[in-house]
Amino acid sequence: MRDEHPIDLTVTLPEGASPDGVSLRGYLEDDLRTRGEVSSADDCSLVIHAYRREEVESIGDELVGKLSDIGLPDGVTVSWTASDGETVVRPV
Hints:
By secondary structure, this protein is α+β, with helices and mostly antiparallel strands. It contains two helices and five strands; from the N terminus they run βαββαββ. It has helices spanning 21-32, 56-69; strands at residues 7-12, 36-41, 45-50, 77-81, 87-91. Strands 2-3-1-4-5 form a five-stranded antiparallel β-sheet, covered by helices on one side. The N and C termini lie far apart (27 Å). The relative contact order is 0.25.
């Protein structure tokens, strides 16, 4: 892990979703390599540490696009805390 103060983005999946968070980890890790890292994954979630605050929104938008492209079920969201302290939740 890098020394920067990471900002977490969370992908939330409905119970029983396919693929689950663990399966998505490998799909997303290579694309995030220089801007963030997957810090945890389980059946219903995936947490990504973005290394730089200014990249959080673009990573969030990219995640929404990639996850939409693979046809995840309704109820999948990507969320993070914006620089103004507000929680941003984007449906996939």
